[in-house]
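ENTRY TYPE: paired fold submission
RECORD: A
CONTENT: sequence, then structure tokens
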Amino acid sequence: MRPLLLVIIISACTTNLYSQQVDSIAVIEITDSISPVGTIDTVRQVDLVDYLVRILKIKNAKERRDDRKIRFSLFPSTSASGDKTVFTSFNVAFLLGDISDTKVSNIYFYPYIGFGGQFGFQVQPNIWLRKNSWNFIGEYFMLNYPQNTWGLGGNSPSENITMVDYDHTRIHQNVMKGILPNLSIGLGYAYDKHYNISVEESDYSSIIEGYMPEDKDYTFSSGLTLPIMYDLRRNQLNPQNGLMASLMYSYYHPFLGSDDKWQSLFLDTRKYFPFRGRLHKLLAFRGYYWTIVSGNPPYLDLPANRWEPVPGSASRGIRQNRYRSNALLYFESEYRFGITANGLLGGVVFASVTSASQYDTQQFKYWHPAAGTGIRLKFNKYSNTNVTCDFGFSKEFASVYVSIGEAF
């Protein structure tokens, strides 16, 4: 609890110290979108707040918004049918330098309650200091998280379903130094504690229990991370072009407080191709490879879909935690397009494929596709933040996802 409060306080102080006087985020779209906030082929750009201002008849609203140093987005969101159900998502976007040489910083806060008895809160800061000299990327949460598991490997059958109830505390923080334009390297710390673990009795529960500690109901994973990232994106809330490639090596050891010694590697790449035209059109691709390099991590710390240790959301349409193993491969493509010329409405179609290796190997024999479509509503034209509503489906699952910000 104390580390989470400390991060929130530091983030708030940093925002007050470094936010610039100019309406810097208002011009983000000049360099990181199809065109400025004001026009797309002389069509004035609008967002949901503009309509609320008009309905409520708020005076001088445009001037007040233009002069703001920080851009807030607060919207109810959800991820139904087996994932976290978020009642409110809070996002703040701000600049700690000049728009010409500093990326947009943002902080997400998710308090939520799930249909399956889950509850907790999550904080995700991604802060860029002036001229991208330093980048702070973190993830902090405290969860009560009963969740189904289906065992290990790429062909775990649906009848293996077994409920595992547990609490989860996570403290992940990377501090990265810009050494070349768009290239950063750094050092970080990763801590995951799963406790009050209990396995519901089922036909498969004895096998699941075999992967759990014999004499205790908790596991500790504590280690150092070595991240490196090449990032050409201007605004991670809604990238309009560019490339991102990152590599993170994690090293866990008992002298750092971990139960066991083990190592992992996470490689993540994202590429965006904008198309010219009166309406916004963009093709986005993502792929990642997540693997255990050596050692024996706790069962709940093994790679699993929708538990990726980086910002973003993957495998929409596949139930969270459905595939777990020592290695995962994931590929996704998404076509994003405008529906209205003023930028208020847009849409997406997406498709992905997930594969978990045969346990304790690097053999990827089984591939699980998913697809879906969604609507975008411009919530804040200054930070280019969308409210997203997606429907994703796969062979054995379908879900609706409503949130703030793009999936990647």
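RECORD: B
CONTENT: sequence, then structure tokens
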Amino acid sequence: MATTLETTAPPLTTAGGTPVSVVHVTAEFFPYARTGGLAEAVNGLVHHQRAAGLQVLAILPLYRTVRDVEPDLEPVGSPFLVPMGDRTEEARVFRAAGAGSRGPQVFFIEHLDYFNRPGIYGENAVDYPDNARRFAFFAAAALTALPRLVSGPVLLHAHDWHTALVPVYLRATPLGERLPASTTVLSVHNPGYQGHFPPETMPDTGLPWEIYNWRQLEWYGKMNFLKGGIVFTDFVTTVSPTQANELRTPGGGFGLHDNFLWLGDRLVGVLNGIDQREWDPATDTQITANYSSAHLEGKRRCKAALQRSFGLPQRRKTPVFGMTGRLVTQKGLDLILGAQDLLTSDAQFVFLGSGEQRYEQALVELATSAPNRIGVQLDFTDRLEHRLMAGADIFLMPSLYEPCGLTQMRSQRYAAPPIVRSVGGLRDTVDDGVTGFWFAPYTAAAFSEAAFRALDCYADPARWQAMMRRGMARDFSWERSVGEYLDVYRRALIHSGAR
């Protein structure tokens, strides 16, 4: 029996007025499974869509981490078989107990061999060798399970390469025959990861060989999950307007710019949001002292606490640069490490996060060589992230590329103007010289120049406080994004011919 989602006056309907359910198929969803911003972005969108009255649910794999967060899971029906070409595999569906009364319902696909592992995508920075098979199965299982989860017309919203095969299975295999009234939207959160696999992977996915061609799944002699999703879906979104434009260029499309160009107006950039109730220094319970744009005094106490926790001397007038996130090439660590004039200036630096060993080692060595100016914490926690945002004077986000980014939004809310490269969502959310600082060339010199502009502004308290207050006043709410996604959904329904 299908689980129905109760709401009144549904904001999304077919042309004939039938309510449409939105089903998010995702590899990550906070707090159950998270490696980066994808989990938070999908969680924020789903919860705010539910609050806006949409009939919405989410489906993700039943990883080991899910049971760590939600040990009390309820089975939904009996086990079922998932067709994967010439073979079938067994799956089960569970849901979080008690979910759905106010928030969205969240469902989990169980396959012990594929998902009951220590990692989500791999372990010790090495991908699982069967990731193609794991996530192909998940996409097919989500479609197979759908009739027992929801009834009536459905809009399937897939996220990144891990679920990009959802529209492919729907349009190119018999699975689609069971879901004739379905529309698909694919969100590209990080185009740098596309799901490239050797052609011999095709039989493992159960997809027909005839779609392994240069127009559909083949990409330079490999199978490309993301390309297949782009070709077969009704609409594609990415996570900022600037990123949508960059995807259409050879330099920003990561080898798929022709496919993004082919989409025309079916590629739309919708800026992610943040939960402004959770990220509010006036009410945040995880920081040392609360503060607001009208009363900034508490930020001084937060700064002193941050300096203490990172083992730095408490110097009220010394500017503190902060950075939190994955320590990977994308985040611009090479620029920071190359800006020796900045690193040796009369400033302090705190780094929070883990990632590639070479960056972890380089930062630890810096902290060892300058313990009074540089602090590093490799064990990331949500509490430490909140405290870093509250205590830092200036936030660093010099990304090589950044489809959207969330931390630069949070830093502005917490009165820590960010230094960003003018790409993707960073350009869309930071105003140069108004709420933060831009630089363009991906060079240490350009980054350093922007950082010293920030220091010049910091040295003028009146200018600096005005910048802090402008950033705190910015609206980065999900409510704005939900309305834009609703417009995309309506256009996708028209494109798919939903009646």
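NOTES ON RECORD B: The two ends are 24 Å apart (CA to CA). Residues 297-476 form a domain with the Rossmann fold fold (CATH 3.40.50.2000).
STATUS: closed
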